[in-house]
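go over my protein:
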Amino acid sequence: MKYFKKILKYARPYRGYAWMNIVSNIFYALFGTLAMISLFPMLSVLFDNTKRLEVKPVWGGITNAKEYVENYLNYFVTQKANEGTDDVLIFMVILVIAMFLLKNLFGYLAMFFITFLRNGVLKDLRNDLYKKTVDLPVSFYSEKRKGDTIARITSDVLEIQHSFLSILELIVREPLTILFAIIAMLIISTKLTIFVFIFIPISGFIISRIGKSLKKHSDKVQKEQGFFLSILEETLGGLKIIKGFNAENIFNNRFKESTSRFFGFSNSLLNRQNLASPMSEFLGIVVIAILLWYGGQMVLVEKSLQPELFIVYMGLAYQILTPAKAISKASYGVKKGNAAAERVLEILETESAIRDIPNAVEKQGFEQDIDINGISFKYEDEWVLQDFSLKVPKGHTIALVGQSGSGKSTIANLITRFYDVNKGSISIDGHDIKKITQRSLRSLLGLVTQDSILFNDTVKGNLLVAKESASDEEIIDALKVANAWEFVQNLPHGINTNIGDSGNKLSGGQKQRLSIARAVLKNPPIMVLDEATSALDTESERLVQEALENMMKNRTSIVIAHRLSTIQNADTIVVLSQGKIVEQGKHKELLDKKGTYYNLVEMQSLA
């Protein structure tokens, strides 16, 4: 229940609906009991067992409540009978109909109000989960499956709505229905009610034993759902590779194995859950059967209970079965919902490894330099960078080159603070970036990555990510700087053309130029280019390189280069090997040294 309490805080903004639901449920339970009791006077008239009373009875205190109610009904029926038998029956029928009508009206109102609460909690929970998903650092998702995160935001949250929040309906309605029915049963026959209650704890114990392993099985179901959603997400992302390598069978088999496990876990879970209702109903009928035997003795042998009262009593006893079944099912729901809530709260309560410190500085501009001072960093066990130092003066272009795995892209990840350094520091204008707010730090940076990350939106929508308030003129100007306007203006709807999932309606060079245009529109003082031309053909590379040169004018740039022909004009070229600087200088100086850089250039010219 500890997770249930944490989820309940999301119900606070909707407590008005909760109170209206509680009030409606109170009246639903009350009129449900009164509807059964209202059958008694009609049965008395039908059996002609109505005791004629001409004098209105007087209230004699709570101890004589049963006699008072019975005498008042007899008095009422006597008065109506004096007006004619038909009138009595018609009135009794109207009374029964009215009670059941009011019961169902308040039942509907209770469901009406709880709908707003349940859907409101669902909305807020999903919003918080999405916000947390975006806030968590990039490193979090290198360890987690994307499909598992999707499963938590979708199916787990729905499970909370169906299982946990349905309990809010049961907390008031079902216990009150049982309470009012028991009060009425005690009034009718205390002896018979005590006899019934001997068997209720026994049936409750049997039901509770069935549901003990439900949470464990539910947890397995939800984890497996996350696993096959991950396979699906990877399949859609890598469909060209799967088809190109004829690997359909490998992925089909992997998916089938996951769904087979899901099949087994789901069957085990649902079979236990489905056992709750028939088991509680069977045990209830056993209690009713025992009640019929014992109550029949009181009516036929002892003559201590009127037949019509016994029929009403049986109706009330059976009326307890429905809410009792609902409560037993809800107890299974709590166990199932507990597993879902645990998975959802695991994300919500995860502390981000990269956070702004208290009183972090809001950095407004870039004045002097970027100082990378003695940094060391590792993703897992092995050091990617060791004691790395570099100063980037304002207005300079620094190129980082080296073989794959030398730590070039890691420097981009650390400057943008997607990861934090293990040792040393990175400073901008003398301010350690850990002491600058992440938002203001990233507002100083423009990022163009090797993979063009675009969204299923229009050209305009993709560029507005950089500057939400940009006008169409500003967008077109940015596209022109990035050499992208020449193809965008020929699209069916210009900047309002949808470019498809991940921009797949465009070529690689076109996608990369859009990425550059997005960075241009942001107009940051510092530009980080992570192998922005490595995946392009010669013609696209020429256009993109021209766009990059346009963009880097009057800016501080850190260029991570794979193709060395693109960085010959850099102010400083830094050559890395195994996380350390082995050479640095201008293009011609490094060639004259005939060292590592010279060898890299030679290898590329031969290729």
